[in-house]
Amino acid sequence: MSVLVYIENVEGTFKKSAFEAVSYAKAVADLAGQDIIALSIGQVEESELNKIGTYGVSNVVTVNTDQLGQFVNQAYASVIAEVAKSKNASTVILSNTFSGKGLAPRIAAKLSAALGAAATALPTVDGNKWQIKRTVFSSKAIATEELSADKRVISLSPNAFEVKENPVSVSVENFQPNVAGSDLSTVIKDIVRATDKVSLPEAEIVVSAGRGLKGPENWGMVEELAEILGAATACSKPVSDAGWRPHSEHVGQTGIAVSPNLYIAIGISGAIQHLAGVSASKTIVVINKDPEAPFFKVADYGIVGDAFEVIPQLIEAFKAYKN
Ligand code: FAD
């Protein structure tokens, strides 16, 4: 029996969330007393593959065929399930990224496995009864779910598990999959990158602003702060409804749910619908000129002040710190 961890890459580079999945899978394999195997699909340089060894995994399987050059959900799910069967893996682990959300249920169906989606902590392992924890009801509660099956697929929430270094040397095995034509019925013709910015759902730091910023012309300082911190930018719903920012930045109950290590909220009141999407953040910093703003109740750190004075000072302070 083994644990198979799928490591997602973007244009040949592994994401941080992929290394979190590797560290998590290594810990799961140790808990279950099983071997661990990492799987990479697509063109990835040897130097990049070697990075997997940093997190304690030496057996790496690569699948690199022309058919799988672009991410196609059905085809990737089939290949991951095929490798899992071939390597006698009873547990498949992957990151709960945009791709992972599409892959996990497909792999589970192909393996007749139980699915534990968006896990936030290590499972408890008791024979074939595993339990995972995940946040529910907009992060207001933690659910414990039992996975009672011989096989299981677990997707790990980004930023939920810290990477752990435990360097070993890597041995790479090339795997030749049987990709069915029906799995390739979707053909990616072209990929147009909408932005080079940090991806919001997986960002470690998010700088978010609301109606307190008064208008779209004032977002330059938000973007500058985000760039210095290597952060993604986000906004409240009214801001995207007004067209000040794109809808892809809207966080909350009706927008994207984020779980960064640091969420900086500027000029956002902290309505319950906004908090629903951000309360899983590890540390929340609120900047608001109204000391009674509800956001302060859930803040780890608060600055009562005018954003137009506070943000420029923060930018200068971070610049000075970096130099
Ligand atoms: P406001 O409520 O107008 O708050 C602006 C804040 O900026 C105030 O606290 C003010 O003190 C502060 N401020 C003003 N000037 C400054 C300054 N110079 N410096 C510092 N602070 C300043 N909202 C979401 O965000 N996400 C959602 O997903 C979402 N879903 C919703 C779903 C439903 C069904 C409903 C009914 C509402 C939803 N909302 C959502 C809207 C939500 O209820 C709030 O109206 C919204 O979050 C308020 O946005 P805001 O904080 O940017 O604006």
Automatic annotation (TrEMBL):
The record describes how the cofactor is bound as: Binds 1 FAD per dimer.
SMART domains documented for this protein? ETF
Please list the cofactors this protein needs: FAD
Task: Answer whether the UniProt record assigns the keyword Transport to this protein.
Answer: yes
Q: Could you state one GO biological process linked to this protein?
A: fatty acid beta-oxidation using acyl-CoA dehydrogenase
Query: Which GO terms label this protein's molecular function in UniProt?
Result: electron transfer activity; flavin adenine dinucleotide binding
Residues noted as binding FAD in the record, renumbered to the chain: R211, G267, I268, S269, G270, A271, I272, Q273, H274, N288
For this UniProt record, the keywords arranged alphabetically read as follows: Electron transport, FAD, Flavoprotein, Transport
Q: Name the protein family.
A: Belongs to the ETF alpha-subunit/FixB family.
Q: What is this protein called?
A: Electron transfer flavoprotein alpha subunit apoprotein
